[in-house]
Amino acid sequence: MNKEMNVPIVQDDDRTSGNLLSAAYYASEMASLKAEIARLTQLNHLLQEKLNAALDGTGICLWQGTIPTGELRVFNLQNFQAGDMAPHFEQWCAKLHPDDRDHAIGNYFAHLAGRTPFYEAEYRTIGQDGTITWLWDRGRLVELDCEGKPLRIIGAHINITQRKTYEQQLAQQADCDPLTGLLNRQAFGRAFAERQAMGPAALLFIDLDDFKAINDQLGHIFGDRVLLQMADWLRLIMPATALCGRYGGDEFVVHLHQSISKEELGRLADALIERMQEYVPQPDCPLRVGLSIGIASWETGKPTFQHVLDVADQAMYQAKARGKRAWYLLPV
After folding, report:
1. Which H, E and C letters describe the chain, residue by residue?
2. 91 and which of 86, 101, 132, 207 could share a cystine (Cβ 3.0–4.6 Å)?
3. Is the domain of 183 the same as that of 158?
4. Which domain holds residue 68?
């Protein structure tokens, strides 16, 4: 005897109704998702506007690095163009100035390794056209994985090229004589110490003879003209490697840090003296300015600037004692 199976019978109308309900549900969900995406997109747009407004004019760019992939993202460009920003860590490294690369990358990985509380560096980048840009950069880790490995870093950088240029101009002004553009006394002494090395070298101490008469009789304008002419002759006659400075008033100094013979030193001194003897500060002016040059030379050792200067000063007075418009050499 067959037993009847208790199996529900689904009518076609019921199946169709269920499909319609399912389709309506998914359509409703899709519409809700699209609306949420639109809302989030609008919110993101508003937040981006607020970010740009808050940072506009500051030069500050916010960035994020995804460490496992190397991806870099900049949230606001400020005065930069889209192509200026490296989209990957390796491309950022490639843009670093060779002199700053070790410093910037070293500071970055020191922070990732936990040796510093944040990453910070000042460095230069080189654009595709060779343009140098100075940046101040700072960031810190904001996310680690379950093993404590770094995942994400967020930071900010700012273009400090204008400040660096201003600092360089100030440094140059502090080091240079405002009239002649040569190194001043303090800067010359520092440069002498920095480039002083074991081996042959010489220092010329140059004093203008009868310069006071030019200032007294013709005026300081003509005196300045003589000093400017002297500076030009030093740049013209002295070797390119020579260090030239105005020591003060009508005194000039030249450091030659290479092997140079007594004959060559004499030739350079004679060339300067001859130029000055032929120079006329004003047409039909009977006044002439001469040069007395003391030369201190040494073959070995690293004498101090003050000691070398004292020897050159003694040699210069020896030249004056011999009638001026001459040079005299003394060993250190």
Report:
1. CCCCCCCCCCCHHHHHHHHHHHHHHHHHHHHHHHHHHHHHHHHHHHHHHHHHHHHCCCCEEEEEEECCCCEEEECCCCCCCHHHCCCEHHHHHHHECCCCHHHHHHHHHHHHCCCCCCEEEEEEEECCCCCEEEEEEEEEEEEECCCCCEEEEEEEEEECHHHHHHHHHHHHHHHECCCCCCECHHHHHHHHHHHCCCCCEEEEEEEEECHHHHHHHHCHHHHHHHHHHHHHHHHHHCCCCCEEEEEECCEEEEEECCCCCHHHHHHHHHHHHHHHHHCCCCCCCCCCCEEEEEEEEECCCCCCHHHHHHHHHHHHHHHHHCCCCEEEEEEC
2. 86
3. no
4. 60-166
Task: Name every residue whose Cβ is closer than 8 Å to that of residue 209 and which is 6 or more positions away in sequence.
Answer: 289, 290, 291, 292, 320, 324, 325
Across 258-276, b (16+ Cβ under 10 Å) vs e yields eebeeeebeebbeebbebb
Q: What is the pTM of this model?
A: 0.57
**Residue pointed to by tokens 């359509």:** 27
Indicate the number of domains in the chain: 2
Mean of pLDDT over the chain: 87
> Which of these ranges, 14-28, 158-172, 196-210, has the smallest mean pLDDT?
14-28
Nearest-Å Rg of the Cα atoms of the chain is: 38
Model confidence pLDDT, tens digit, residues 76-100: 766 666 556 788 999 999 999 999 9
Q: Is residue 108 part of a domain?
A: yes
Rounded-to-integer distance, Cα 310 and Cα 15, Å? 112
Are both 78 and 151 inside the same structural domain? yes
Up-side HSE of residue 277: CA atoms within 13 Å toward CB? Answer: 10
